[in-house]
Amino acid sequence: MRLLICDYHVVFAESMAHLLTAQGYQVTGVTHDVDQLFAALRRQQVDICLLDVFFGTESIVDRLPTVHAASPATELVVLTAPVDPGLLNAARTAGVAGVADKCQPVTSLLRLLDRVAAGESVVEPKAWMPIPIDPVPRHANEGLRLAGFLTAREREVLCGLVRGDDTKKIARAMGIASATARCHIQNVLTKLGTHSRLEAATSAVRDGLVCPETGEWLAGDRWHPTRRAG
Predict the structure, then answer these.
(1) Mind listing the domains of the chain with CATH numbers?
(2) Rounded CA gap, 126 and 131, in Å?
(3) Could you tell me the pLDDT band of residue 199, with boundaries at 50, 70 and 90?
(4) What is the pLDDT of residues 95-117, one digit of tens each?
(5) Residue 62, C-beta contacts closer than 8 angstroms, at least 6 positions apart
(6) What's the pLDDT tens digit per position in 180-197?
(7) Strand partners, 147
(8) Calpha distance 4→13 (Å, rounded)
(9) CB atoms inside a 10 Å sphere around CB 196
(10) Which of the four pLDDT bands, split at 50, 70 and 90, describes residue 141?
(11) Would the pLDDT of 125 be above 70?
(12) What SS3 string covers the chain?
């Protein structure tokens, strides 16, 4: 299966490419804007295009039919968060084969891709239902418990990962060297029990730690490994 990834967030796109390659998929390219996407589709045969519909503050929902027409043999899987019913309807109209929530577990996304490759039209219910963001989650889970071990600087790093910032951008924002930022990133992955930046960012959003739209920390100081939630 030949996959093309088009996502505005460089770190997310590169992490996804690495993960999919490790799972045995053939990633033919990674692009970060729509013009690059069209050029890639003209250049090579692609079975599935994994496409984010938000590039910064700009939505390309209206361009989905054009993307589909540029390579009719390529199945489109829209990847974004959050997704509303309006996007769902637009995707169906444009002939999109699948819609996936960026915040869903990676295993769910892999299953979706396999189903699309098998010829199914897949729209997961979670992809278009609003995702509740509760600053005080009802139940302490493992992700929240582990997040209590993060230092203030490591929380900043995790917020940067959710925003899709690369190491240099995180370092500039925090006023530290890139090597120091890499150490902070590795500490975050280790403390959260994750194996990639993508997995850490996904877990942070899923557990209500970081807002996916703004990249702001949501959990406050309530969650700490040595005390219970009040």
Answers:
(1) 2-128 (3.40.50.2300), 133-230 (3.40.50.2300)
(2) 8
(3) confident
(4) 888 888 776 677 778 888 888 98
(5) 90
(6) 999 899 889 888 888 788
(7) none
(8) 10
(9) 17
(10) low
(11) no
(12) CEEEEECCCHHHHHHHHHHHHHCCCEEEEEECCHHHHHHHHHHCCCCEEEEECEECCEECHHHHHHHHHHCCCCEEEEEECCCCHHHHHHHHHCCCCEEEECCCCHHHHHHHHHHHHCCCCEECHHHHCCCCCCCCCCCCCHHHHHHCCCCHHHHHHHHHHHHCCCHHHHHHHHCCCHHHHHHHHHHHHHHHCCCCHHHHHHHHHHCCCECCCCCCECCCCCCECCECCC
223 in Cβ contact with 147 (< 8 Å): yes
* Separation of alpha carbons 122 and 92, rounded Å: 10
- The sign one gets for the Cα dihedral 23, 197, 180, 163 is positive
Give the tokens for residue 225. Answer: 């490994």
Q: Which amino acid is at 101?
A: D
**What are the structure tokens assigned to 151, written together?**
């230092």
Total-model pTM = 0.57
Question: Tokens 């994994």 — which residue?
Answer: 50
Residues 30, 172: Cα–Cα separation, whole Å: 25
Give the alpha-carbon dihedral of 5, 7, 9, 13, to 10 degrees: -10
